[in-house]
Amino acid sequence: MAGSSCGLNGRTLKFLNVIDEFSRVCLAIRVGRCCQAMDVIDTIEELLKLYPPPTHLRMDNGPEFIAHALQEWCTGSGTGTAYIPPGSPWENPFVESFNGRFRDEFLNIELFTTVQEAKLLAEQHRIEYNVYRPHSAL
User: Per-residue pLDDT tens for 67-91?
Assistant: First the structure.
């Protein structure tokens, strides 16, 4: 669900990619200097303004995903969690596929000078991925 890259000044940027497993649409790419549980929650809550609530969130065991705040949010919202066992990326194929393409087609090509520039370019990539080069399932 997340990836990272370095900007022009060498500071790390974190990318939180949210993919709908059913449609394989990239719902969001959140960009920031860090990615904590509250960033994940904020991203999901923004998506809930546009989409129905998910039945579950499938994610790896990164600290931002196993944090109590996110687990409590899921419990309170009625959303289940489906954690991927460490070292088992094949159990999260849609996000892993997207992340691989995202790295090859975006992170390895672009050089970001600011977080705002990375956000703008990531959103352009998300739209291109969803609209102009949709997955065959779309």
Answer: 899 999 999 999 999 888 877 777 7
CA separation for the pair 64, 52 (Å, rounded): 23
User: Which tokens go with 107?
Assistant: 């992170």
Do 68 and 36 touch, CB atoms closer than 8 A?
no
pTM reported for the whole predicted model: 0.86
Structural domains in the chain? 2-129 (3.30.420.10)
Instruction: In whole angstroms, give the CA distance from residue 87 to residue 37.
Output: 21
Residues paired with residue 13 on neighbouring β-strands, in sequence order? 5
Dist. CA 84–CA 68, nearest whole Å = 17
The answer to whether 17 touches 130, Cβ cutoff 8 Å, is: no
Q: Which residue has the tokens 């992170």?
A: 107
CA distance 75 to 118: 32
